[in-house]
Amino acid sequence: MAGKKKGRPDTKPSEGRDSQGRFAKGWKGGPGNPEFNRLREYRAAVEKEIPPNTCARILARFAIMAIQGDVPAGKVVLERLMGKPSANPSGATPTLQLAAPRTTEEAESFLRDVQDAYASGAIGDVQVSTHVQLVKAFSDLFAVKALRDRIRALEQRLDDEAA
Predict the structure, then answer these.
(1) CA-to-CA distance for 25 and 145, rounded, in angstroms?
(2) What does the pLDDT look like over 48-97, one tens digit per residue?
(3) Strand, helix or coil for residue 23
(4) Residue 123 near residue 117, CB atoms below 8 Å
């Protein structure tokens, strides 16, 4: 046994492998994951049928539902914006706990709190980006709500003038 090399001396190298069983230089790999290929086909079909602006409108509708108190819709919005929550095996309390803004004033305050937390090192770049995306989504919703309210007021004024 003293003259044998470590590893698998009894096996022959297969295609794409060197004499040590490692992938040979320039080896292109195998056919890939067939499940991934199938999922790629499904995703392409969905993307063909549902354009990006429709997806944005769907998410905006979920966000409106969330603001109105629909907890499952809120979960969808937050998971899409922030990702699914990861397990916290250490039980450590997050360093930044902010309530989602419900008004433009709260959004401004929220952004100041995020900025302060970032400056102090309590949160990193990814968390800042996530929080800013959340505020952007709520800002878009505030703008839509304000426009909707203005349209209703104009319609009411037109109805009053017609009467």
Answers:
(1) 59
(2) 888 888 888 888 888 888 888 888 888 887 777 777 665 444 444 445 56
(3) strand
(4) yes
Q: Tens digits of per-residue pLDDT, 84-139?
A: 665 444 444 445 566 667 777 777 787 778 777 777 777 777 777 777 777 777 77
Vertex 107: Cα angle to 101 and 108 (nearest 5) = 150
- Around Cβ 142, how many Cβ atoms within 10 Å? 18
Question: Tokens 């979920």 belong to which residue?
Answer: 62
For residue 137, CA distances in Å to 82, 88, 96, 114 come to: 12, 26, 20, 16
SS3 category, 153: helix
Query: Please, which residues bridge with residue 17 across strands?
Result: 23
Query: Is this structure's pTM higher than 0.70?
Result: no
At residue 17, the 3 state secondary structure works out as strand
Q: What distance in Å separates the CA atoms of residue 138 and residue 147, rounded to the nearest whole number?
A: 14
Cross-strand pairs, 23: 17
> What are φ and ψ of residue 50, in 5° steps?
-120, 105
